[in-house]
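tool_call: predict_structure(chain=1)
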Amino acid sequence: MTQSVVVQVGQCGNQVGCRFWDLALREHAAVNKKGIYDEALSSFFRNVDTRSGNNGPDIYKGKICSLKARALLIDMEEGVVNEILQGPLKDVFDSKQLITDVSGSGNNWAVGHKIYGCQYRENIVEKLRKTAEHCDCLQCFFIIHSMGGGTGSGLGTFVLNLLEEEFPEVYRFVTSVYPSGEDDVITSPYNSVLAMKELNEHADCVLPIENESLLEIVNKIHQMINSGKLGSTVKQNSLVTSSAGSAKTLQEKPFDAMNNIVANLLLNLTSSARFEGSLNMDLNEISMNLVPFPRLHYLVSSLTPLYTLADVNVPSRRLDQMFSDAFSRDHQLIQADPKHSLYLACALLVRGNVQVSDLRRNIERLKPSLHFVSWNQEGWKTGLCSVPPVGHSHSLLALANNTCVKPTFIELKDRFMKLYKKKAHLHHYLQIDGMEQSCFSEALFPVVCQ
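tool_result:
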């Protein structure tokens, strides 16, 4: 069994990461009734003997003693990390795997990348190596960060570069949360474009997610609940839009529902690495089959069914409808319509009691309405994991290498140019050592060419 390490950077990265670990623990608890440390748990958790303190040895078999997340938490403001350490998950994180500062990056990519990157480089490398040493077969690093802030975009992409230098053979999957047009960070277009240059060059796969799409999904769910269309009984063991059923019930924060959707994407993405299935899909197979050219590695994701993710007791969507939904605009995690764009490749990761024949039947049914490039008409990759999400009979994650991602990049470029034409706020970046105006034009070129 392989292991993966999660590197969560910045406020957004740590908040999403916190939801991921909470939901992952609940998912494993629902399956692992005997409390035995097994291969499924080992993929993301160490089992540590803490009887002689937190530095005890790892235990590879037998009863669960103390689970520690294979994670590195980084933020240049300590507020969010301190909150996590005072919450119900405080014992899941190794105190030696935290890197924090107090002043933050001031919404400036250059501060995160150039100043904090250099300042904390050795510390980050040391902690990454320490985490890797606890893995028997390290397969993947998952980076979770936002594109609009200073730490997430700047230091997040600095860490990505370090991972390529230190662990060139280990896959680098990046979950990047893109800001909306109404973002309250004025410099977010600069930060996002500067970060994208690094993602283009150093990531194996990028899963772009737009805040606007997450907000629309959550609002739709709330509207359906309030209108009474879906009933109003909350499922206590559902995972996506509620924190109900977690270790300790805390007041839900404004972004928890949105963060849970991203966390659920990661749970489904890694389900084959954690559980058995008749058609397991390894993480390296995603990169191998969905990325035909090095820089075309942005994968548009969709989750379905949304209704059963809405914490309401409703009849499950018919299986065939679930497949249809995965290709509809309403279920995409970016503002895009893949059916009216061109597919380079597509992966379907199904969980629950679904047969290979169901998969093939639905692919054949949907094929005529989907446009694939001429040189990859059979560009499908499929995975079946027998363990469904908690409280659900089945679920589907679709990952599409599709040209529908282009409008997101064009809109980002347009917002960048509105500032850049006036050279607005540029001096905040240029006063940082190593930053020149050419950094902006060089960063913009690959975004325009996507």
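agent: Confidence is low (pLDDT under 50) at residues 231-238, 244-250, 307-315. Proceeding to next step.
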